[in-house]
Write a structure and sequence with these properties.
The structure holds 2 protein chains of 2 kinds. Chain A has 7 helices and 4 strands; from the N terminus they run H-E-H-E-E-E-H-H-H-H-H. By secondary structure, chain A is α+β, with helices and mostly antiparallel strands. In chain A, the strands form 2 sheets. Chain A has a two-stranded antiparallel sheet. A two-stranded antiparallel ribbon of chain A has the order 2-3. In chain A, a hairpin with a 2-residue loop joins strand 2 and strand 3. In chain A, helix 1 runs parallel beside helix 5, helix 3 packs parallel to helix 7 and helix 5 runs antiparallel to helix 7. Chain B is α+β, with helices and mostly antiparallel strands. Classes of the chains: A alpha+beta, B alpha+beta. At the A-B interface, strand 1, strand 2, strand 4, helix 5 and helix 6 of A face strand 1 of B.
Chain lengths: 183, 346
């Protein structure tokens, strides 16, 4: 049974991990060799900021060579990563809370299980392109053109899931600290 | 009077429309085992949209000595030698761009590379440029030309959709080799600059794996990522073969067998083919001759390889046939009726 402390560090860790994984999966964060230190900035124009490489994947405006890692900086990609990671954090927090207070809250087992669907969608948004290449799943590759659309779908699903959690009695992430029961 | 106005318009309108659209020069027709419509229907999105993988349209180059600072001896490059000028395009750059619209030795070329099929081909492009459509067929890059918007699968080198459907490109020889091999034969080569491609990409990383050593998607036994039209288990899916095709036949050369025998032959119905191993670049050269008119092995003993290719009197009168290295699964997906030269049969 997760403690209050776990209910905080676990969701935050998952959220940060998800953001890193998302940036890696879309190619904005990559391990590199040999090690190098450098950075370059492209002319920042609205056209460049909104220029899409693929659905919901935007062109970078700067590149940062940081030793054995390369970070491509696209403000909108970073914003999408932050939104997804934030929603993931509050969803995990809510799920942990509802799991530890099933009677006090109005959550059913079915409802909790249904909460995994947005997480799976979000996982797809992050990892589907990498899975195609790493695991070699030609059947999945046939849908590569649709992968980008998993991003807005994930945001919508995670948002709806969070609303449902709140209606079932999950506290907000900030106010919950120290509480043992639902409001 | 109206006739006079119409005449003036007929004379003036083409001039007002600007320079005539120069199509890429036609190449000889190449064998296709399915119709263009069939290939186009089998194509699918690879993920990035049109020009989501941006071609390099204003390439800049650095001297070989400068490239030595960041290219390892075993790094893969795509090399072009034309009219006395040698240029190298590092795979680590082209994996992010797939097409460079360039001029080499005075000829306008598109140097193209598809990482998913391991194929590097060069084409004369006329005054047009080629871009990456974002679509794939048999995992292979489908290019589009920017004036007619016709779609050309790279391996087929023929348009399968658009106003130029049915036409073939004029292929020029490019080399898929390593930096140390290329630099040895062409010490005065220039190298595509990674600093001035016009785009921000992480050229120190490869999203698919690596070639030095081979790993990830490029490993011989690793699975392919997209559906294909035809499958074969004769070789591991990513085994590199050397392939060439004419209007009537496609031939895959087992590179290990070629290295062992140095010379392989194929007797076709309409022509005979001579395949020579080039140990310097680790590639093959193919010559086509009339049936029964190829030189004997003894006549090829004094064969040498220069910047311009194999040199031997016995080769005079034969026509060079351009080919390219490819992953086996991709070659077979396009050419299921392919002849395979493995050193065991004619």
């Amino acid at each position: 049974m997760p403690t209050d402390r776990h209910r905080h560090w676990l969701p935050f860790s998952c959220g940060i991990g998800y953001a890193v994984l998302y940036l890696y999966a879309i190619g904005d964060l990559a391990p590199a060799s040999p090690a190098a230190w450098d950075w370059r900035l492209a002319p920042v124009t609205l056209e460049r900021l909104l220029d899409m490489r693929a659905p919901f994947r935007f062109e970078p405006v700067a590149i940062l060579d940081a030793g054995h890692a390369v970070l491509l900086l696209s403000p909108i990609n970073l914003l999408l990563a932050a939104v997804l990671a934030g929603l993931m954090t509050v969803n995990i927090h809510g799920a942990l809370y509802l799991r530890s207070h099933p009677r006090a809250c109005r959550a059913s087992r079915l409802g909790l299980a249904a909460g995994t669907a947005p997480a799976l969608l979000a996982g797809g948004a992050c990892c589907a392109p990498s899975l195609v290449l790493l695991l070699g799943l030609p059947g999945l590759g046939a849908f590569a053109g649709l992968f980008g659309w998993l991003v807005p779908l994930s945001i919508a699903a995670l948002g709806l899931s969070r609303i449902r959690q709140r209606r079932q009695g999950a506290p907000s992430l900030v106010r919950c600290r120290g509480r043992a029961v639902c409001p | 009077m109206p006739c006079r106005i119409v005449s003036i318009l007929l004379v003036c309108l083409p001039a007002m429309a600007g320079p005539a659209i120069a199509a890429p020069p036609n190449g000889p027709p190449l064998v296709m085992t399915s119709s263009g419509d069939h290939y186009w229907q089998a194509s699918l999105s690879g993920g990035p949209g049109k020009d989501g993988i941006p071609s390099i349209d204003d390439p800049n180059f650095v001297p070989a000595a400068q490239a030595d600072e960041w290219l390892a001896a075993g790094s893969r490059i795509i090399g072009v030698y034309r009219n006395g000028e040698a240029k190298a395009y590092p795979q680590s750059i082209l994996v992010w761009h797939e097409i460079v619209n360039d001029t080499v030795g005075g000829d306008r070329l598109s140097v193209t590379y598809c990482p998913l099929t391991g194929t590097a081909l060069g084409f004369l492009r006329g005054t047009t440029e080629f871009g990456v459509s974002g679509r794939l067929v048999n995992s292979n890059l489908i290019m589009y030309d920017r004036d007619s918007e016709s779609h050309w699968p790279q391996i087929l080198a023929s348009a399968v959709e658009g106003p130029r459907k049915g036409r073939s490109l004029h292929q020029v020889r490019v080399f898929w080799t390593t930096w140390d091999r290329w630099r040895t034969r062409y010490p005065d080569t220039k190298v595509l600059s990674k600093e001035q491609t016009g785009h921000l990409r992480s050229y120190r990383s490869d999203p698919y794996g690596g070639y030095n050593p081979r790993r990830g998607y490029y490993a011989e036994q690793s699975p392919r990522a997209f559906p294909v039209m035809h499958e074969s288990e004769r070789y591991p899916p990513k085994r590199e073969i050397y392939g060439f095709r004419t209007g009537s036949v496609a031939v895959a050369v087992d590179r290990a067998a070629l290295a062992k025998h140095s010379v392989l032959r194929h007797r076709g119905k309409q022509a005979d083919f001579l395949v020579l191993h080039d140990p310097g670049l680790g590639t093959a050269w193919v010559y086509r001759g009339e049936p029964g008119e190829l030189p004997a092995d003894e006549a090829l003993r004094d064969l040498t390889f220069t910047k311009g290719g194999p040199r031997n009197e016995a080769l005079s009168g034969l026509v060079a046939a351009p080919g390219f290295e490819a992953m086996w699964f991709a070659w077979y997906a396009f050419y299921p009726d392919t002849v395979v030269l493995d050193g065991n049969a004619d």
